[in-house]
Amino acid sequence: EKVYLNGSIVPHQDAKISVFDRGFIFGDGIYEVMVQINGSFFYKEAHLNRLKDGLQKVNIKFDVDILPKEISKLLEASELTNKDCMLYIQITRGVAPRQHSYPADILPTVMMYAIPKVLPDINEIDAKVITRDDFRWSRCDIKMTSLLGNVMLNEEAMQYDCYETIMHRNGLYTEASHSNVFFVKDNVVYTHPADEYILNGITRIIVLDLCKSLNIEINESPISIDDLTTIDEAFLTGTITQIASIKQIDEHILYTGNKKGPITRKLQEALLKLK
Ligand code: PDD
């Protein structure tokens, strides 16, 4: 496995980062995950723009525009040019003696790797999820590497043999530990607005666009935990998750077997066609 580190491509064993890197010490970094399908990265521009945006929000100075060329070099070295794969990009503030404030004249650490990845068949998934209080900070719009909250919440889902953990803040569903969540009620698709309480997923944006082109009504407002029993359908979205149908939320059963709802099915079919 090859790793891109600050302009060099090296075997992963040789990709070494200082213990004083602020990514390691503070989780002070931004990351992206995208997938190459049928020879091109799915919504590459949108992913790179979100990366640019995240770096700007935390004032890490790095020119994202150099990445496409570097990504091509990495894929070639990894023998993944045009192959189905997942690309991980992480940019941290860089190495400096430990201090909380941003050090002056610091050089960011840029790390990327690509691994072969064939996306799971989304139509096979009928997910059970748990719900938990969203105890994360209130800048979830930043795709930062400090993911301990998300990791803790996801681990709980695994303990319960569930696929994901959906979070709620002040009684309103926000998103899941590594995906966005949608609900369908009376043929209207609901999802939390893209404010500071959720990551605005690229798949989330694609799904909203698909709803528009399929004439499915959308309402970007949160669903309350008190409305759970009035929900007809629910699904998760994400780069790897794609659109995963939810069959059970805590004790509440939405459907049994593989009888997922018609709107979820329609959106899954439409998403597949984009690839
Ligand atoms: N996770 N919300 C959170 C908290 C996420 O971490 C992700 C993505 C999403 C969905 O975003 P997108 O559709 O752009 O993938 C929503 C990535 C895949 C990860 O951390 O591995």
Beta content comes to 25-35%
CATH superfamily of the largest domain: D-amino Acid Aminotransferase, subunit A, domain 2
Helix and strand content put the structural class at alpha+beta
Could you say what the CATH topology of the largest domain is called? Answer: D-amino Acid Aminotransferase, Chain A, domain 2
Q: Give the radius of gyration.
A: 19 Å
The unique ligands bound to this protein are: N-(5'-phosphopyridoxyl)-D-alanine
**Unreliable residue runs:** none
CATH class of the largest domain: Alpha Beta
Q: Please, what is the average pLDDT?
A: 97
Cofactor: pyridoxal 5'-phosphate
Protein name: D-alanine transaminase
Organism: Maribacter stanieri
Family: Belongs to the class-IV pyridoxal-phosphate-dependent aminotransferase family.
Description:
By secondary structure, the chain is an alpha+beta fold. The protein has two domains: 2-116, 2-Layer Sandwich (D-amino Acid Aminotransferase, Chain A, domain 1); 122-274, D-amino Acid Aminotransferase, subunit A, domain 2 (D-amino Acid Aminotransferase, Chain A, domain 2), CATH 3.20.10.10. It contains six helices and 15 strands. It has helices spanning 22-26, 44-57, 67-77, 148-159, 202-213, 262-274; strands at residues 2-5, 8-11, 29-37, 40-41, 85-92, 109-116, 126-133, 164-169, 172-176, 180-185, 188-191, 217-219, 233-238, 242-249, 252-253. Strands 7, 8, 9, 10, 11, 12, 13, 14 and 15 form a nine-stranded mixed β-sheet that branches. It has a six-stranded antiparallel β-sheet with strand order 2-1-6-5-3-4.
